[in-house]
Design brief:
Structural class: alpha+beta
Helix content: 25-40%
Radius of gyration: 20 Å
CATH class of the largest domain: Alpha Beta
Number of domains: 3
Distance between the termini: 19 Å
CATH architecture of the largest domain: 2-Layer Sandwich
CATH topology of the largest domain: Uridine Diphospho-n-acetylenolpyruvylglucosamine Reductase, domain 3
Shape: globular
């Protein structure tokens, strides 16, 4: 983005977004769980639907649309790898302040910026069962819906009743779960350009002690099996049909294999971790090398769960 366009866009943004929430040259390493990546030319914190609609209008005035790849939507940054070269396209960050939760019987009405951990705690406090699987997933609701996040035999499609969305033009629409085309690590939002505003989460009345015991058990299993002590994007690779990515990586002799400070976790081969000061380029190179060696050793192509933003070539 050239400087003239950036200044003009900032002026338009300030009509609907507080000035203190508009940043230039913002390091994306502050906003991704990999703790790596270059700076975004323009970074905007969004705290309400009204601010989001205003920002979309400002972008539209410059011909920038989500469908056209003119800007990015960022949640908790837990499934992203941003290039060291940074991002020329603006970033709209759905802030953690966009996080209201309300209860309607056994349904939770949650805004997109809610962390999955916060929703799980709210459900526990209200003795509502069904969301325990998501308590340890390090993401927010919006991103979890985009990728149909899941863990421990649970996934978002099992609990999402409906989703509120905003179009590029600022129109608010609602889609039922059956319209969201949920499948393994996939949703309608991988196909069409909508922005998640929130969702209705359908749970069932349960017993506080049982729900807590289930959450505690999953938290123990996560700590025991996953390298939570290092920055990562969670599970790096999708599960190939009929296989487990971690087993394929281990069988390829890649446990502990490193490129710079990027490493295939010694604790869980399905994770690539940042052991200290790994660059996005090192993480990307390691991902590509793991894919190559697994393909050579087993003939299986493993795809990434992690989304790469920016120029890596």
């Amino acid at each position: 983005m050239d400087e003239k366009t950036r200044r003009r866009l900032i002026q338009r943004l300030e009509e609907g977004v507080p000035q203190e929430n508009i940043y230039t040259d913002e390091p994306m390493s502050r906003h991704t769980t990999f703790k790596a990546g270059g700076a975004a030319d323009l970074f905007v914190e969004i705290m309400s639907e009204r601010e989001l609609s205003g920002a979309l209008g400002a972008f539209a005035s410059e011909g920038l649309t989500l469908a056209g790849g003119g800007f990015y939507i960022l949640g908790n940054g837990s499934n992203l790898l941003v290039s060291d070269k940074g991002l020329r396209e603006p970033v709209l960050h759905i802030s953690k302040e966009f996080n209201k939760i309300a209860r309607d019987g056994e349904t939770l009405l949650c805004e997109a910026g809610c962390t999955l951990a916060a929703i799980a705690k709210y459900a526990l406090d209200n003795s509502l069962a069904g969301f325990e699987f998501a308590a340890g997933i390090p993401g927010c609701l919006g991103g979890a819906i985009v990728m149909n996040a899941g863990a421990y035999d649970g996934e978002m499609k099992q609990v999402v009743k409906s989703v509120r969305l905003m179009t590029d033009t600022g129109e608010v629409i609602e889609k039922g779960a059956e319209e969201m085309r949920f499948s393994y690590r996939h949703s309608l939002l991988k196909e069409e350009s909508f922005i998640v505003l929130g969702a209705a989460i359908s749970l069932t009345q349960g017993n506080f002690g049982d729900i807590k015991a289930r959450m505690d058990d999953l938290a123990f299993r996560r700590r025991d099996k996953q390298p939570l002590e290092y920055p990562s994007a969670g599970s790096t690779f999708k599960r190939p049909e009929g296989y487990f990515a971690a087993k394929l990586i281990q069988d390829a002799g890649l446990r502990g294999f490193s490129v710079g400070d990027a490493q295939v976790s010694e604790k869980h081969c399905g994770f690539i971790v940042n052991k200290g000061s790994a660059t996005a380029a090192q993480i990307y190179a390691l991902i590509k090398e793991v894919q190559r060696r697994v393909r050579e050793s087993s003939g299986v192509n493993i795809e990434t769960e992690v989304i790469c933003l920016g120029d890596f070539e």
